[in-house]
Design goal:
Largest sheet: none
Helix content: 55-70%
Number of strands: 0
Distance between the termini: 41 Å
Oligomer: single chain
Length: 143
């Protein structure tokens, strides 16, 4: 995506422009960047992929990665405020384990699982990917 200021001026033209004009052009450029970022976040919220966006962006700078790690202290609060919209999620690394979806499924498993009598083990088997649509239809019919 090329922004209006970038299309209209080269870096040399900006550097050689008057200081007052350069400040205004850079401010306008930054405003376009901020608005594009807000649109990206809104889109991620609508499609239910905000956490994916946060995780991808966290790999761009150490302080952003640190901020994502601090979110793990609030995993229960994040789960309460999150509407689970899909039955799958991407795994980007260990930080993905504090996703609200994962936290919710872990909690539900711990709350609802009862060990069958005379057993010592639990084996969880995930369905093959080609069955996911069928499973989602069954889940939607139950809700």
């Amino acid at each position: 995506m090329q922004l209006p200021i970038c299309r209209k001026y080269t870096a040399d033209e900006l550097n050689n422009s008057q200081k007052v004009n350069r400040k205004r052009l850079i401010a306008e450029h930054n405003l376009h960047i901020c608005m594009a970022e807000i649109d990206t976040v809104k889109h991620a919220i609508v499609e239910g992929s905000l956490w994916d966006l946060v995780e991808r962006r966290s790999h761009g700078h150490p302080s952003m990665a640190s901020a994502l790690k601090h979110l793990s202290f609030y995993r229960e609060d994040l789960e309460k405020g999150t509407r689970i919209q899909r039955a799958w999620s991407f795994y980007y690394g260990a930080e993905s384990l504090v996703r609200p979806e994962i936290t919710k499924h872990q909690r539900l498993l711990l709350e609802n699982y009862k060990k069958p009598e005379n057993t010592n083990s639990l084996l969880l088997i995930t369905p093959p990917p080609h069955n996911l649509q069928q499973i989602q239809r069954i889940q939607n019919a139950q809700s």
